[in-house]
Amino acid sequence: MPTRKPRTTIYLEPELMQALIQRAKAEKRTISNLCNVLIEQVMTEWESERTKIKN
Question: CA angle, 9 as apex, 3 and 10 as ends, to 5°?
């Protein structure tokens, strides 16, 4: 089923792509899903740091 989520294109170093492929297979995820999870984690950490700095 098609999704209405926004899309983006990124260009990766071949080594990084291979690492993502390996991790996605190990975690039984798609590369897209793995990237989404990793970005969510980093953004949550970033927001947390921003909040600490503001307070």
Answer: 135
Strands (E), the chain: none
Q: What is the mean pLDDT of residues 44-53?
A: 91
The two tokens of residue 12 are 């990766």
Q: How far apart are CA 55 and CA 49, in angstroms?
A: 10
Q: What global pTM score does this model have?
A: 0.83
Question: Which H or E run contains 32?
Answer: helix 31-54
Q: Is the separation of the CB atoms in 23 and 34 below 8 Å?
A: yes
Report the run of H or E that residue 45 belongs to, with start and end.
helix 31-54
Mean pLDDT (whole number) for 11-38 = 98
The dihedral built from the CA positions of residue 40, 13, 15 and 7, taken in this order, carries a sign that is positive
